[in-house]
Structures are given as structure tokens and as C-alpha cells.
Design goal:
It is built from 21 helices and 18 strands. It is α/β, with parallel strands linked by helices. α3 packs across α5 and α15 packs parallel to α16.
């Protein structure tokens, strides 16, 4: 991090880096002088910002030390997003897996450096004004004091007090931090904050904490199933934010990895083991509050309450305005009973009430694969036909015929799809094995490690995504179509993974042939080829591979790229017939 430096009178951003051309030269004179050599310091601040957004933290530090003229735009990028972690290995991993990405994911600092950050923002108002986002990666930084590996309560209190002091000095737009409000009184006043992620344990009613977020529009709530504080915290949370003009609301369950935590969860009955977010909407229903949301994300085990929860949500959320919906719920449609064709799931009941839904991410139900299959088919063909522009579908079918039916349904009922990601859990292991056998190489470890690195990066440097399953694919391409230059600028919207890029470098020709064979229509195998006929499709993710559809001389052709690296391969054999 860059501390106190150059606080002299020359530090005037508006003078050194004007947002507009203030040279005063007539346009004709400027046109005649275009042949003159231009230096990087002559670029306007928006262009420099785009350049430095592609540099990593160490590169930005070198720029700050080497160039007086480039100090300001580099410092802006350094302080824009602060990621706090207790893991030194995470920083090494993030650096090692993003050398080829040319994207700045943020500045990682250890939690022990928070006090130094506070000192910096206290001494320099200019640097304090640059901080827009603070993200705590680890739950143990300021959370879960009962954990055997957590920090001492006194240290935790010091961390919280440091964070509160930082909030009084900076104008944050985004904060992601998990705090336990039962251990201390919290006072958060952030008038500029618009994006917030907290744990329900933060809202402990006995602590008399104070929260003031007048401009909050995006809220993400983490919770634990086995935590008794989650119930009380959910009620307080609903009371606090019922008057907010929220546009995005997401709930996510924190999966504890300790053996004691898992044993507690397994010993609980199904009724006790349910998610807590329905209580949030129960409070809204009792108060007569109705939220106008455009994005909604739900996570957790809901037992067999799909129909009831859909009705509850319709009473507390104006579903006619809902554009994005992410359902990561686990549901029991008919426990200990045979399959009932007339049973319905939360997905089916909820999407029937969303006339303007454009983006959907869904995962299968917990018990019955037949219910999961029929729910997805009915949703796409009856509830929201030709509505979606983005779809992330997780399929777990009992037989290959059911999987093929899903592909056929998508190809015949969702003609407006632009971005599509498919994950077939029932065949993903076999498909991956077939791909690696087709490559005739020993690169299996590369493939597995790349998938692991992707999950780690998702939960760390890219943690501040709302409705991640949707946003990680819907922002890849813009409506004007995909091209190499445009995508190289927009790579900060997706996860980048150097291991995957190296994997495709070594196997790109064989991967190309495998994809053509994989999409081939043969009577004895399942093929996702029907989705290739979608007229507006630009992006398809399948088997961890990313396929981009582009226009070339009026004809559609395909380009293949693996996990958003910089490897492009024409796949002429994928042209839909």
C-alpha cells in the first residue's frame, strides 16, 4: 500500500489530469498535430484508469514509485478495492492465477494491517476519499468467536473498532464483513454505502447496535442453520431494512467446515434444519411491507414448503419487477412417497408470477430428480417462454433421455437467450473423463486444479458478486456482440484462471476436435446441439469450456475460449446446420 506521500501543492488531480480537453487549441490544429508522438502521461484520466485497471497490485506499486505524473491514477486503483484476509497463501494464489488475465481484482492486505490502513486514511483525507470497497474474505476475521481457531475476543473487538473508525473516515460504496453483534455494541454509520453484505448475527437485538445506511440498495445476508442467533438476528434485520428502497436482496448459507458444526447440523431434525430467510419475509408480511426488487437470490434447505414460500414471496415482493432470480435451494417434494406428477417446486411456483424475468439460475431439488426435471421443463416452456436472456441451469437427470429433453426444451422455448451455462451433474464426471481420454494426455491434474482454483477465487477476490451464478456469465458480452478487443477490456467481469489457460494452450487442437464430436448428433448419446440453433446466443459454457458465437462477414461462426483466457480457436464444425 502507498502511505503518506507527496502532499505538496502539486497534488491537484483536476489540474494535472483534466477529464476534458482544456488545451484551447482549435480542432483543426489538433488534427494537424496528430502525427506527433504521444506519451502515456498525455492520456486523459479515463483512459489511464482503464490502463491501470489491468495492472496487478505489485505493478501499480512500481508505477507509484517510478513516476510522479502517474502516481495519482495508480493510487486510485490501489485504494479503490481493499480485500482483507488472514491467509498469506490466498494472496500468493491470487497473484499466481491472474498473471495472464490482466485484470486488477483489488489490493489484498492481511488483517493485521488494518491498523496501518486506519492510520493512512486518518492522516490523508485524499487517500481516504479513494477507498470505495472493503471486503473481508475470511469469516473468522471478525466472526465466530466460539470457533477453536478464532481470534481472541479482545483482538476481535479491536478489529471491529478499527473498522468502525475507518468507516468514519472513508466514503464507502461497498462493505462485505461478517460480525457477531452479540459480543459487542456496533455502530455503523455509512451514508454513502449502497452495497452491503453482513451476517444475521450482526443484528443481535440485545446489543443495542446502531446501523444507518440511508442509500443502501444492494443487500446480501449470510446465515448459519445451526446458529440460534440467526433467528433473532433475522427478525431485527427485517425490521431495520423494511423501510429501505432495496433493489437487490440475496441470502446465502455459510457452510461451516468444522466437525463440531457438521455434527450439530446432522443431529437437527428437518424442521429445525430449515433456512431462516422465510422469517425475514414473515416480518415484512406482518407489517404490510412490499419490496420492489429487481434481483433476488435465495439459498438453503426449505423442506417441502415451495408452494407456501412462493405465496409468501408474492405478498412481500412485487414480483412483476423481478428481472434476475437465483434459486440455490434444496427441496423435498414428497419425502418417503412415490413420485407425484402433480407436485410442484418453489422454482415452478415462483416463476409463474414473474412476467418480466430475464435472468435465471437454478439448482436441482434435494430428493426427487423427476420433480426437478419436470419443474425445469414446465418453467421454461410454460411459465417464462421466450423471456430469458441469461440461464444457468444445473441438471441432474435420472437417465440421459431426461437430459436430452432439457436441451431440446431450451432450444425450442428460449429463443432470446444470449448467455447460457449448463452443468449436468449426472454425467459431468463421465464427460470430463471422455474429454481427457480424447486429449490423450496426462493433463488431468491441470484440469482438476483449475476447477479448484476457480472455486477459491470465487470465494475470495471475487466474493463481492451479487447473484454470482447469473452475473458471472451475463456480463461477459455486451449487446453489440463479442470481439477480441472488447472482451479484453471486459475481463474484469468474470473469473480468470491461469491454470485453465495453460491447459488449453497445451491441448487446444484436440479440444477443438473433442467439442465438435461432443456436439455431434448421434442416436446413442446425449448432445446439447439443439442450443446451437438459438438465434441470439453469444456465449455458451459447458464442461468448463467457454464458447463464443461471433459474426464474420454476415455469417455466424464460433470461437472457443477456455475459462476466459486469451486462447481463441475457430470451431467451424459447430456451425448449426
Amino acid at each position: 500500500m502507498v502511505g503518506k506521500r507527496r502532499r505538496s501543492s502539486w497534488y491537484r488531480p483536476s489540474d494535472l489530469y483534466p477529464l476534458e480537453d482544456a488545451s484551447g487549441e482549435p480542432s483543426g490544429c489538433r488534427a494537424q498535430n496528430n502525427w506527433k508522438t504521444k506519451f502515456i502521461v498525455d492520456l486523459p484520466i479515463p483512459v489511464l484508469g482503464r490502463v491501470f485497471s489491468s495492472l496487478h497490485t505489485n505493478d501499480l506499486l512500481q508505477v507509484c514509485l517510478a513516476s510522479r505524473m502517474l502516481y495519482l491514477p495508480a493510487t486510485v486503483q490501489l485504494y479503490k478495492k481493499i480485500i482483507v484476509t488472514e491467509s498469506h497463501e490466498l494472496k500468493k494464489l491470487a497473484i499466481s492465477q491472474s498473471r495472464l488475465s490482466w485484470v486488477n481484482y483489488g489490493t489484498l492486505i492481511h488483517s493485521s494491517k488494518l491498523a496501518l490502513l486506519l492510520r493512512t486514511v486518518h492522516d490523508s483525507t485524499k487517500l481516504a476519499d479513494l477507498i470505495r470497497s472493503i471486503i473481508f474474505v475470511d469469516e473468522t476475521v471478525c466472526f465466530d468467536v466460539n470457533s477453536s481457531q478464532s481470534v481472541e475476543v479482545s483482538v476481535q473487538r479491536q478489529l471491529v473498532e478499527t473498522l468502525q473508525a475507518i468507516l468514519t473516515r472513508v466514503r464507502l460504496n461497498e462493505l462485505w464483513c461478517l460480525l457477531d453483534g452479540s459480543k459487542m455494541t456496533l455502530s455503523f454509520h455509512a451514508p454513502s454505502l449502497s452495497r452491503l453484505a453482513l451476517s444475521v448475527e450482526t443484528f443481535e437485538p440485545s446489543a443495542q447496535s446502531q446501523f444507518n445506511f440511508p442509500r443502501l440498495t444492494h443487500l446480501k445476508i449470510y446465515y448459519q442453520r445451526e446458529s440460534a442467533c440467526s433467528v433473532a438476528g433475522t427478525v431485527e434485520l427485517a425490521k431495520l431494512f423494511s423501510s429501505q428502497k432495496l433493489s437487490t436482496l440475496e441470502f446465502e448459507e455459510m457452510h461451516q467446515s468444522s466437525l463440531e458444526s457438521l455434527n450439530r447440523a446432522n443431529s437437527m431434525s428437518r424442521d429445525q434444519n430449515q433456512t431462516i430467510w422465510p422469517q425475514f419475509f414473515e416480518v415484512l408480511s406482518s407489517s404490510g411491507t412490499k419490496l420492489t426488487l429487481t434481483r433476488l437470490g435465495l439459498d438453503g434447505f426449505i423442506n417441502d414448503g415451495g408452494a407456501h414460500l412462493a405465496k409468501l414471496l408474492s405478498n412481500t415482493v412485487d414480483l412483476s419487477h423481478l428481472i434476475s432470480l437465483q434459486l440455490n435451494v434444496k427441496e423435498t417434494s414428497h419425502l418417503h412417497h412415490s413420485h407425484d406428477d402433480y407436485s410442484s417446486t418453489l422454482l415452478e411456483n415462483l416463476t409463474a408470477l414473474t412476467p418480466n424475468l430475464r435472468k435465471l439460475a437454478t439448482h436441482p431439488t434435494y430428493d426427487c430428480l423427476f420433480c426437478q426435471h419436470s419443474s425445469l421443463i414446465n418453467t421454461l416452456s410454460k411459465n417464462i417462454p421466450d423471456q430469458l436472456s441469461t440461464l444457468f441451469a444445473v441438471v441432474e437427470s435420472p437417465t440421459s433421455a431426461y437430459t436430452q429433453a432439457v436441451y431440446d426444451c431450451i432450444g425450442s422455448t428460449q429463443h432470446k437467450l444470449v448467455n447460457l451455462k449448463l452443468l449436468d451433474r449426472s454425467s459431468q464426471v463421465a464427460d470430463a473423463s471422455a474429454m481427457l481420454q480424447h486429449l490423450m494426455s496426462d493433463d488431468y491434474s491441470w484440469y482438476i486444479r483449475a476447477l479448484y482454483y476457480e472455486s477459491v477465487l470465487k470465494q475470495s477476490v471475487y466474493k463481492n458478486y451479487f447473484l454470482y451464478d447469473i452475473e458471472c456469465i451475463s456480463s461477459v458480452i455486451n449487446s453489440a456482440g463479442y470481439n477480441h478487443e472488447l472482451f479484453s477490456v471486459r475481463t474484469n467481469s468474470v473469473i480468470l484462471n491461469d491454470t485453465m489457460v495453460e491447459f488449453v494452450k497445451k491441448n487446444h487442437q484436440r479440444l477443438s476436435r473433442f467439442l465438435i464430436d461432443y456436439f455431434a448428433v448421434e442416436p446413442h448419446c446425449v448432445s446439447p446441439r439443439p442450443v446451437l440453433h438459438l438465434p441470439q446466443l453469444q456465449y455458451l459454457s459447458i464442461l468448463g469450456l467457454s464458447i463464443f458465437f461471433t459474426q464474420c462477414n454476415g455469417r455466424r461462426r464460433t470461437q472457443f475460449m477456455l475459462n476466459y483466457g486469451d486462447q481463441y480457436i475457430d470451431l467451424n464444425g459447430l456451425e448449426p446446420s
